[in-house]
Specification:
Blueprint (H helix, E strand, L loop, with lengths): L31 E2 L2 E2 H4 L2 E4 H6 L20 H19 L3 E5 H4 L6 H22 L2 E6 L18 H20 L4 E4 L5 E2 L7 H22 L4 E4 L9 E2 L4 H10 L6 E6 H6 L4 H10 L3 E5 L18 H13 L8 E3 L11 H27 L1 H9 L6 H7 L5 H9 L11 H8 L5
Parallel strand pairs: 3-4, 3-12, 4-5, 5-6, 6-8, 8-10, 10-11, 11-12
Antiparallel strand pairs: 1-2, 7-9
Helix pairs in contact: 3-5, 5-6, 6-7, 10-11, 11-12
Keywords: Carbohydrate metabolism, Cytoplasm, Isomerase, Magnesium, Metal-binding, Xylose metabolism
Subcellular location: Cytoplasm
Cofactor: Mg(2+)
């Protein structure tokens, strides 16, 4: 079997002072943080699509990266990618991976041939999983790239497209069962509208709900125990996608009585596109008890599209991990790198270097967030800010002992209302001290 990442041995933790680029400076898998090994807090997963399929293209240029697993035979290339993926994961000590169906197998001449190709490749993947102990964090199906999905998938105005979408989801769920996936993800890449005047929004969203209910029913039928996840995104490629952000997605799930079956797979770059911070989206999901998993990347805020950069902002990652820890963790979820190396980072070793950077940055975020929790830095600030609700009239309000009349009587007797400064600037500065 060919070695794809030549002259690169196992990546080990060497501490923050190491000069070895092929070593972890902050990610120490067995370091105990808040009572658990770091590797249990940070269930890292390598994403098949950007890591083994992306070749450095952008809107203005073709491939810039050379990948030795590519051949003129699509099935042989797919098989080579399996070898490359498990070689990389073993060398990096990464315990999970995730993929879209089109990432792992060529499309073939028709849907039947595509499914046959998937079966062949997932047989190989299953063998590798059994040999290495590496697990599937989640899989999903691509219902947005093919020409038939031009008008959407479940939301398409063509019933035949809905049927093909259903068949593809059925196959995806079967593959999740076959590979014992921890989660199964839905991302509606084209489930939105291009032009509102020619769109029946209510009908399209009802059809999306229909296919999700079918998926829930089929998962039960085949005994699939994976957590169902939905990944919000506000725009691009559609003008307005229905799963715009965490709050919009939860409203949709609750309206269609699906919230008990689904949690959210949240991406930092999608939060940016929605006009939110990533910790905001995580906090919204946590409010609903729906924090499921993380697509870890960063968006370039001065650009208006999904740049999917590796997450290297330690403060952002600290705030994100604080929300995760405060919510009690990710359960079956994990942290996959929905991130691609830059066009200028075209060497094959850049794939490993970029993942080291992302893993180290999230490890720093975890350590910083754990320290914030241990010292109750933010907890004390929040407790002080809302202390008026712990006694007197405030306590009566939260215990539902007041009404508009009693509160009006109370308010009319007040001589003055006193409030205090939040001291935001100094607290923001002190927060930087927790960035590791």
């Amino acid at each position: 079997m060919e070695e794809y990442f030549k002259n690169i041995g196992p990546i080990k933790y060497e501490g923050p002072n190491t000069k070895n680029l092929f070593a972890y400076r902050h990610y120490d898998a067995n370091k105990i943080v808040l009572g658990k090994p770091m590797k249990e807090h940070l269930k890292f997963a390598i994403a098949w699509w950007h890591t083994f399929c992306f070749e450095g293209t952008d809107a203005f240029g073709g491939p810039s990266a050379t990948r030795s697993w590519n051949t003129s035979d699509p099935m042989q290339t797919a098989k080579n990618k399996v070898d490359a993926a498990f070689e990389m994961m073993q060398k990096m000590g990464v315990g999970y991976f995730c993929f879209h169906d089109v990432d792992i197998a060529p499309p073939g001449k028709n849907l039947q041939e595509f499914f046959q190709n998937i079966d062949v490749i997932t047989d190989l993947i299953k063998e590798k999983m059994e040999q290495t102990g590496i697990k599937l964090l989640w899989n999903t199906v691509n219902l947005f790239s093919h020409q038939r999905y031009t008008h959407g998938a479940a939301s398409s105005n063509y019933a035949d497209v809905f049927a093909v979408s259903a068949a593809t989801i059925k196959k995806g769920l079967e593959i999740c069962k076959k590979l014992n996936g921890q989660n199964y993800v839905f991302w509606g890449g084209r489930e939105g509208y291009e032009w509102l005047p020619n769109t029946d929004m209510k009908f399209e969203q009802a059809n999306i709900a229909r296919i999700l209910k079918m998926a829930v029913d089929y998962a039960k039928e085949i005994g699939l125990d994976a957590q169902m996840l939905i990944e919000p995104k506000p725009k691009e490629p559609t003008t307005h996608q229905y799963d715009y952000d965490a709050a919009t997605t939860m409203a949709f799930l609750m309206k269609h009585n699906l919230d008990k079956y689904f949690k959210l797979n949240l991406e930092a770059n999608h939060a940016t596109l929605a006009g939110h911070t990533f910790d905001h989206e995580l906090a919204v999901a946590a409010c609903f008890g729906a924090l499921g998993s993380i697509d870890a990347n960063n968006g370039e805020t001065i650009l208006g599209w999904d740049t999917d950069e590796f997450p290297t902002n330690a403060l952002d990652n600290t705030l994100a991990m604080y929300q995760v820890l405060a919510a009690g963790g990710l359960g079956k979820g994990g942290i996959n790198f929905d991130a691609k190396i830059r066009r200028t980072s075209f060497a094959i070793e850049d794939l490993i270097l970029a993942h080291i950077a992302g893993m180290d940055s999230y490890a720093r975020g975890l350590i910083g967030a754990a320290k914030i929790i241990e010292e109750k830095f933010l907890e004390k600030i929040v407790e002080k800010r809302y202390q008026s609700y712990s006694t007197g009239i405030g306590k009566a309000i939260v215990e539902d002992k007041e009404n508009l009349k009693t509160l009006s009587d109370y308010a009319m007797k007040l001589k003055d209302v006193e409030i205090e400064s939040n001291h935001v600037e100094i607290y923001k500065s002190i927060l930087n001290d927790y960035v590791q």
